[in-house]
Amino acid sequence: FQEGRHFFDGGWFNNLTVQVRQAGNWVNVQRLSASPFYPGINNGITFETYTLQFDAISGDAIRLYGAPGGSAAFISVGELQVFSP
């Protein structure tokens, strides 16, 4: 996952998780880790790349989910890649 551009009023997640859709319901993945650690703040670095790892899970869709940061309450994603184990 690569963040997009940070603006003074948004573009990042305050908190971040990954969800997978199973039978029409979104469920949180288990044992999510981010490398490097995802700070959940506007650290002034745009287009920063994070590797997110979690326990294997099956479903028909995947999404990043969390509270958006900043007064405008939006996030920005530059790129998202998903790989199967």
List keywords for this structure.
7 strands; 85 residues; globular; mainly beta; three-stranded antiparallel sheet
Largest sheet: 3 strands, antiparallel
Our count of domains comes out at: 1
Distance between the termini: 16 Å
Mean pLDDT: 96
SS element count, helices: 0
User: How big is the Rg?
Assistant: 13 Å
Query: Uncertain spans, ≥5 residues at pLDDT below 50?
Result: none
Total number of strands: 7
Percentage of residues in helical conformation: under 10%
Strand content bin: 25-35%
Strand order of the largest sheet: 3-2-6
Shape: globular
List the secondary-structure elements in sequence, H or E: EEEEEEE
Class inferred from helices and paired strands: mainly beta
